[in-house]
Amino acid sequence: MKTMKKGFMVSAAMITILAMIVGCGSNNNKGTNASPSGDEASKSPEKSPSKTEKVKIIYSMWGSEEEGNKTQEAADKFNATQDRIEVEVQAIPWESYMTKLNTQATAGQLPDTGILKEDGVIQWSSDGMLNDVSTMYEGSDSKPLDSLAYKYQGKTVAYAAANEILLLYYNKDMFDKANVPYPPSVLDKAWTWDEFVATAKKLTNDKNGKHPGDDGFDSQSIVQYGASVENLAWQLETWALSNGGGFYNNDGTEVRIGEDASVEAIQKVADLYLKDHVAPLSVGQTDDGIQRTIIAGTVAMATNGQWNVGTSLNAAKEAGLKYGVAVLPYMKEKVTLNTGGANVVFSQTKHPKEAMEWLKWYTAEENNWGLISSGIWMPVLEKWYTDETLTHKWVDNPNFPPYEEYKSAVVDYAQSSAARPASWFYTNYTTEFNTLLSSSLGDVWTGKTTAKDAIAKNLEALKAANKGDK
């Protein structure tokens, strides 16, 4: 799912102070600082509706008006299944989503439930803004994979709405024209980093058709690049882990990004542009990598999330783009990250039970099938990955690459030992950490400094960010 345009997270104390300023005494402010233990969820609503009065639930999501309408269609189906709950979808543009939620939180006017960006879940929970949803799937066989649970102090405070992983996309026409074999879709045959770079050089052309390493190659007149590795801060964790390092220790309480293996991995990504001359310059600030590379027709292969199949590549495919999917290359260990925007129940709601009932229904695959069949979401239940009949139902459709290719590079890959949860499933303050890391690496991408020097210069600040210290 789309991620990581950073939203400013308001602390619980600041929320309380500002709420007093903008709405002192308002009933809407009740529950703003509810305990994340879920005690509020176990209490009865302040007022029980009559048999003819439906409980109204507001569900917020990021996306366009069209995406909001599609989600409302699903909500309408839910509304028609019973006469107790009425769900209304609130679609907010991606660029302003977290700003809007923070404003609503300050005013005590958050929706009842909604999707929350991955990097904010643990922090919002620690600030008392989320209900404990540990009991949401009790007695049900539709509980999502354990790897998709966001946990704070041992409590499940959210489940990912989808199981997304990072992939390697490629332009088949560019590979065919260069007579270069396609990237492997099978994990056992994954390219090493050196093989990846060597292939990227064969696919990089200057205006005279020369490749990096050829006599007379002009790095200032490249017309086609061989590769692009997304360098948004959170996706860089993939390469730190692949190189034997990481951003954090296993429970997210200590920072490892200063280790040689982590620094070396980030420098290798930077060197794709600086030294290997196979990648365009990217400064790691915008989440539109596939649009800028594969869809723009300027790059032969690029890394990014599976959600791009549905959010942008379907339309490009209809326009004539022939693209494929493959597993990521690796440095020392085979790694991809799994992630997914979190469906949460906000602590300000007066109707946590009804909000959870809606989420439980909505996240069942059969009830959001349009998002799955279009390629925006991946299923959250294990059976869709292991039951061949269900896998065919999911993958055998014209929105996806060929079945065997996609099943291997996505379905099997997501269930392999290479798939690891992104750190925001269990680590607090990843918003601050990733924001600081992104700004620290700005001069690395342009070659003004090295990853080693940039991280060393900011290491103490990164450690402080991990602790929530300003």
Automatic annotation (TrEMBL):
<feature type="compositionally biased region" description="Basic and acidic residues">
    <location>
        <begin position="40"/>
        <end position="53"/>
    </location>
</feature>
<feature type="region of interest" description="Disordered">
    <location>
        <begin position="31"/>
        <end position="53"/>
    </location>
</feature>
<protein>
    <submittedName>
        <fullName>Carbohydrate ABC transporter substrate-binding protein (CUT1 family)</fullName>
    </submittedName>
</protein>
<feature type="signal peptide">
    <location>
        <begin position="1"/>
        <end position="25"/>
    </location>
</feature>
<keyword id="KW-0732">Signal</keyword>
<dbReference type="InterPro" id="IPR050490">
    <property type="entry name" value="Bact_solute-bd_prot1"/>
</dbReference>
<dbReference type="Pfam" id="PF13416">
    <property type="entry name" value="SBP_bac_8"/>
</dbReference>
<dbReference type="InterPro" id="IPR006059">
    <property type="entry name" value="SBP"/>
</dbReference>
